[in-house]
Amino acid sequence: MFFTELNNLLAAGQSVTITIHKTAVNMTVSVLPKDTRVKDPAVKNLKSFDVTATAEELDAEFLNELKKPLMKSTGLLSNLVQFEQGITDTEKNSKVGKEKEEKVKKLIEIAEALEQEKKKEEAFAKYKEVLEVDPHNHKVLKKTSELEKELKQPSLF
Fold it and tell me: Where are the alpha helices (DSSP H) in 1-94?
């Protein structure tokens, strides 16, 4: 029953960390919800839900006491995910976003052409220009890392 209820309270991508501390008589249970999709650093300020009671009291009431604060915090996390996705979508659809995307595309085409011509230093520099415009471009981050390794290797000729 506990895990079924917990499953119903969490959305896809969310998790909870449960910590239990035993004292002489009581137990303190801390529950901290998380969502890996949220990028906002403010989510680190989210506090855990803490309950101190006897084991019998926890058996009887813990789940009921947990539901409301967990629903509130997981709802907040879901709203943050949706908000961040909305910003990303708006950015992509804006004129500035489209111009940025077009500039990135052109720079990548130039860098790939230079790479085909075996002009690796020049290609590396163009990829770096892409990162100045789009610092989180995973494809280009990977490519610059690969080229950097290649350029550091000594050549025999």
Answer: 2-9, 55-93
